[in-house]
Amino acid sequence: MTGRGGGAATDSAAASDRGTGSPARDGRDESQLERLDRQFDNLLQELRVMQTGVQVLFAFLLGVPFTNRFTTLDDGQRLLFFSTLLAAGVAVLFLLAPGAWHRALFGQDDKAYVVMVSHRLTIVGLTFVGVSICGVIALIATVMYPGAVAAVVPGVCVALYLLVWCVLPLRRRASLHR
């Protein structure tokens, strides 16, 4: 798309919500490129919030092995800690990746692909954020309340993350497309 003023066919496609030729549901009058710019800007705003949180978690986890209490963890707790540390590191990697993709493909007129890949990288990154947060909660539960509580609390954490981050938004998404 070349932007506004490209004729009726171009204007109709530019106002398309999902490339179907129908007007955008939110009533925006924007070209395909403007829509992609807006989507990427929205994604970057979300990533700024997410990156800070996961980087703080990752930094916290990096310091844990150097505390006196770390030596009291059993092998299972150390494995849980290391798995959680790796999950946080992978989350950082995926949540920083959209910026790297944007830099690598800057000026190549490939915004649609960058937006699509960045969206997918963010979803993977969020998955690992959830895994790392549930892992930290599981580790703390095993240290503070070994036994039944240590088994139940992480399960509740996983269930809540799945509900709030997956089930409810996907249910809403499905209801919008009926």
Notes on the protein architecture:
There is one protein chain. This protein has 178 residues and is mostly helical. The protein has 2 domains: 1-30, no CATH class; 32-176. It has helices at 8-14, 32-63, 75-104, 111-144, 148-176. Helix 2 (32-63) packs antiparallel against helix 3, helix 2 packs parallel to helix 4 (111-144) and helix 3 (75-104) runs antiparallel to helix 4 (111-144). The longest helix has 34 residues, at 111-144. The protein is elongated. It starts with 7 loop residues before the first helix and ends with a helix. Mean pLDDT is 84; it is low at 1-23. Residues 1-31 are annotated as: Disordered.
Give the key terms.
178 residues, transmembrane helix, Sodium:proton antiporter, DUF6328, transmembrane
The biggest beta sheet is recorded as: none
Structural class: mainly alpha
Please report which band the strand proportion falls in: under 5%, 5-15%, 15-25%, 25-35%, 35-45% or over 45%: under 5%
Using the CA coordinates, give the radius of gyration.
Answer: 21 Å
Low-confidence stretches at least 5 residues in length (pLDDT < 50)? 1-23
- Element order, helices and strands? HHHHH
Whole-number count of domains:
2
Outline type: elongated
Number of strands: 0
Overall mean pLDDT score? 84
Note the total helix count: 5
Helix coverage percent of residues?
over 70%
Distance between the termini: 29 Å
InterPro entries: DUF6328
Organism: Paraconexibacter sp. AEG42_29
Region (Disordered): 1-31
Keywords: Membrane, Transmembrane, Transmembrane helix
Summarize the structure.
Residues 1-23 have low confidence and may be disordered. This protein is 74% helix and 0% strand.
